[in-house]
Amino acid sequence: MRTIIAIMLFGSLALAQTGTKLTVKISGLDTDKGQFIVSIWPGETAWTDKQPVGRFPVPITSGGAEYVHENLPAGDYAVTVYHDKNSNAKMDRHWYGPPKEKGAASNGAKAQTFGPPKWEDMKFPLSGAEQTIEIRFE
């Protein structure tokens, strides 16, 4: 009986882990000061409503980092990253509005003149067991 329960438990755990493993490779900084904050956006509505899957702090090593997020459902996603220079877990801004800290996004999408990158420029399809994207600070 214990064997059957153990098989059922492990089987249900295996079924729960059916999403995609997303690896985000970040590069291009000339410092290891501070941290990166990685945000994963599961669709245009999440981007518009400012509701990411989460905002994840990642230590910087040799001007870059790697972040892995497990078990994401298939769909269109975007990833944004900013260099949190002072490790306060928020995007610091000038008194007149623009960010003081550098940001980067999936597909090399650039910020607009007065705002963040467009969803269409950042989005990428996510599917399969594993997927890796690269984000470079320029």
Lay out the secondary structure:
Layout: H1 2-16, E1 20-27, E2 35-41, H2 44-49, E3 54-59, E4 65-72, E5 75-84, E6 103-105, H3 119-122, E7 124-126, E8 130-136
Parallel strand pairs: 1-8
Antiparallel strand pairs: 1-4, 2-3, 2-5, 5-6, 5-7
Give a brief rundown of this model.
By secondary structure, the chain is an alpha+beta fold.
Number of strands: 8
| Class of secondary structure makeup | alpha+beta
Q: What percentage of residues falls in helices of 4 or more residues?
A: 10-25%
What count of structural domains?
A: 1
The name of the CATH topology is: Immunoglobulin-like
The CATH class is identified as Mainly Beta
- The proportion of residues in beta strands is 35-45%
Dominant shape? globular
For the residues shown, what is the average pLDDT?
Answer: 89
CATH fourth-tier homologous superfamily:
Immunoglobulins
Query: What is the chain-wise order of helices and strands?
Result: HEEHEEEEHEE
Task: Give a verbal description of the structure.
There is one protein chain. Strands 2, 3, 5, 6 and 7 form a five-stranded antiparallel β-sheet that branches. This protein has a three-stranded mixed β-sheet with strand order 4-1-8, with no helix packed on it. The protein has one domain: Immunoglobulins (Immunoglobulin-like), CATH 2.60.40.10. By secondary structure, it is an alpha+beta fold.
Features:
single chain, 138 residues, alpha+beta, Immunoglobulin-like, 5-stranded antiparallel beta sheet, 3-stranded mixed beta sheet, 3 helices, 18% helix, globular
